[in-house]
Amino acid sequence: MEVTPGACGITSKIYPLALPRGTEKFCELCQGPATLQCTKCRVTFYCDAEHQQADWAGIHERICPLLIPIRTQSLCSLTKADQIHVELKKVELMGICMSVAQSKLSERKYEEALPAAQFCLRCSMDVHSPSANHLIPAYLLLAEANFGVSNLALVTELLSQAEWAVLKSPECGHEIYQRLHRSLGRLQVATGNLDAALLNFANDIYHASEAYGLDSTVACRGHFLMADVFAKQGKTAIACSMFSEVAGTWHTHLTKHIETHIQNVQPSFDKSQHTEVDETLRTVLEFWQNEDRKNSGQIALVAHCLAMLWFLGGDSQKALGFGNVALQASQLIPNHDLTEPIQTLLQLVQNPQREQHPGCN
Ligand SMILES: [Zn+2]
Ligand SMILES: [Zn+2]
């Protein structure tokens, strides 16, 4: 009996009599007792239609057929060569889930990222032993998805698992330490422990600088998060200085991207960063637009960044809007050195026919 329409995958009821004696099936998402099964692969089970649909949209659509060889064969009955083949399939599956979860997270689709992140952790546990340091990226991914849906209790638990695994893995690289400290810092901010958050973000910046360079966009985001905490604590002087640094770094990066864009070189701007950069720059812009510290130079700089970002992202309306804010602010300062580049950008946005490859990517 078919229960759900094809667009969301098809399920049928599990007939307990059709299962071998003593086998109970559990829901792919919540691990509760299952009553439905995916009709396509017949190796994935759900407690109800809601969990089936969430899993289908989150990850199952991508991996449904891949699960068949993994879940239907018992490893001990296979030859050595076939066992290796199944293990390699699991690693492939893990890679798919990780990249799906990451791309959904970068689009801020936290709810949809959950099934992929959850599957990724389960698959990592299966491929590696539960204590292996290979689980750390999966813990961090699942923590980030849960952070997005405000499940802070689970975030705390996952991050302590990750911390524990990091402690036991002295070979962990700066990249992992950086991600761990960033997640811990964000959790501290969410639970109101601002001083602890500052310590985590300082570590985040240190490891980001070691892994990607001091001027990297990863280190820059760390500076932003730290500045935001100082702003929340009312430490305006240090927040001002750090926000200016953040805007300066982004201005340099985006100016380079615009130059390569004009030269028709394949753009190197990573679209997955777009949402995060937009959020970073808007927060900084609002900070400088606040009546108490209105700073035309900084408003021009940050609004110019946002205009470049949206021009590269192919949204000329937003690029024009921010470009005009930038121009107005820069014209308040006599002979401001940004006035000309802002005017050039505005012309570029308004005359896209002069370009051979408008938009980003
Ligand atoms: Zn369920
Ligand atoms: Zn399936």
UniProtKB/TrEMBL annotation:
Show the Gene3D superfamilies listed in the entry.
6.10.140.2220
What terms describe the molecular function in GO for this protein? zinc ion binding
Signal peptide span per the entry? none
- Out of the domains of life, which is the source? Eukaryota
Instruction: Pinpoint the MYND-type domain residues.
Output: 27-64
Identify the InterPro entries for this entry. Zinc_finger_MYND_domain, Znf_MYND
Keywords of the record, alphabetical order, are: Metal-binding, Zinc, Zinc-finger
Note the PANTHER family from the entry.
ZINC FINGER MYND DOMAIN-CONTAINING PROTEIN 12
Put simply, this protein is called Zinc finger MYND domain-containing protein 12
Instruction: State the species of origin.
Output: Xyrichtys novacula
